[in-house]
Amino acid sequence: MKQITRVLASIGLTAAIATSASAADTAIPLATWGGTNHINIRHFVPALEQAFKDTKPHNLVLQHFPGGQLGEDKGMPIAIPTGQVKLGWITINGWTGTVPDTRIMDAPTGLTMQQLDQLIDAPNGLMSVLQKKFEQKNTVLVGMADLGPPAIASKKPIRSPEDMKGMKVRVFSEGQAEAVKAFGGSPVNLAFADIYSAMQYGTIDAAILGFQGVSSQRVYEVAKHVMVPASFLGTTMMGWAANKPWFESLPEGDRKAFLKSMDIASHQNRKAIVDEIGDLTKDYEKRGMTVTFLSPNQPEYPKWKNATGPLLKKITDKLSPEMNSQFKN
């Protein structure tokens, strides 16, 4: 009987210790959506988990809720400020109705990925300006990652805007449609899944899509050229945002460790995105595609800048002075 009592006491003590350890943990519930193979999930989540381990003795524990379990991308501008989601993966471009300055991501600024990367981290730079704007909406922007500007896949080479004159071009945003019209082309709103067949049967002559999409949709089989015109067609900026009251409720030490971990993981993720683009470029070239990245030192660059100038002004006129100051040459 005494032996049983000792065993039960031991079990009780072990359970109490486990409960105590569990109670000491600070749970970080990350909500993501979309496919788990996306680099912002496939790479970022393990990087964040490792960063949490490296910041000990603070006991941050990641609870990942993938596949839209807690919320989809389109709902994040409401779910995060209201606290339905504590920490979520977001497409910053999708917050224009909540944080108007995010409209800059769709603007034809002409910045390269490298330039945008530097701008994000600059003192009083893009991240800093957006953080202040997000905080006004009960949200803390804790990380950013540029997926890169859209690419133009085509059967014929495109180097400058006039090359699209008379072309039927697939677009996926209103801003892109306006740009294609300004270039003398005809924009065609087309689902991502329909690009391959539309290009194959001549419904479109070119398609604007994410650089990574050339691979996932096997566009290299129906197009021989891919052009990335800097960000003259905007850029796809992703990020991670937290509910402000939840964030401020974290113990100070855990809050600092959380921010440090997010900074480490988001920077590692940004590097992984650039590396992946490099690997995809080599793959496309092996498959017979000509890949071109527009840069400021190329003669075609001023042509893109002049052609998109009126569109840029139309957007920047609606932005705050703090945001506009980021893009003055």
SSE topology sketch:
Layout: H1 2-24, E1 26-31, H2 39-42, H3 44-54, E2 60-65, H4 76-82, E3 87-91, H5 113-121, H6 126-135, E4 139-148, E5 151-154, E6 168-171, H7 174-182, E7 186-189, H8 195-200, E8 206-209, H9 213-216, E9 225-228, E10 236-243, H10 244-249, H11 252-286, E11 290-293, H12 301-316, H13 321-324
Parallel strand pairs: 1-2, 1-3, 6-7, 6-8, 9-11
Antiparallel strand pairs: 3-10, 4-10, 5-8, 5-9
Helix pairs in contact: 3-11
Describe this structure in words.
This protein is α/β, with parallel strands linked by helices and 329 residues long. It has two domains: 187 residues, Bacterial extracellular solute-binding protein, family 7 (D-Maltodextrin-Binding Protein, domain 2, 3-Layer(aba) Sandwich); 111 residues, Periplasmic binding protein-like II (D-Maltodextrin-Binding Protein, domain 2, 3-Layer(aba) Sandwich), CATH 3.40.190.10. 44% of the residues lie in helices and 18% in strands. The protein contains 13 helices and eleven strands. The strands form two sheets. Strands 7-6-8-5-9-11 form a six-stranded mixed β-sheet, sandwiched between helices. It has a five-stranded mixed β-sheet with strand order 2-1-3-10-4, with helices on both faces. The longest helix has 35 residues. The N and C termini lie far apart (83 Å). The N terminus is likely disordered.
